[in-house]
Amino acid sequence: MKHALYSAAFGLFLASTTAVADDMPTFKLLMKEGRLFPETIEVPAGSRFRLEVKNEGPGAAEFESLELKKELVLAPGVTRSLVFFPMKPGSYKFFDDFHPETGQGKIVAK
Questions:
Q1: How many other CB atoms are found less than 10 A from the CB of residue 75?
Q2: How many domains does the structure of the chain reveal?
Q3: What is the pLDDT of residues 73-100, one digit of tens each?
Q4: pTM for the model
């Protein structure tokens, strides 16, 4: 009986976290041939959000932000997501670590 109760509680927990994640705003970033599109992403300050990163280039790409302590390596054709905790207003740099000369961008929290 206890096992069934714990399973039901865990199921409700998963359903509630999925609903919360679905309500999160999602912003898209395209990485292609050492370039980032868009180079500036505006997000709401003080709110969690998801960044969906897609690599359409022929080689690997890596989203990296030293300020935000985030990194994500993507093989060609792969799309992955990062969840960001609420940010204070400001500008936060990120780059493609495999193409640092051309792959520069920023997230602006307003």
A1: 11
A2: 1
A3: 999 999 999 999 999 999 999 999 999 9
A4: 0.79
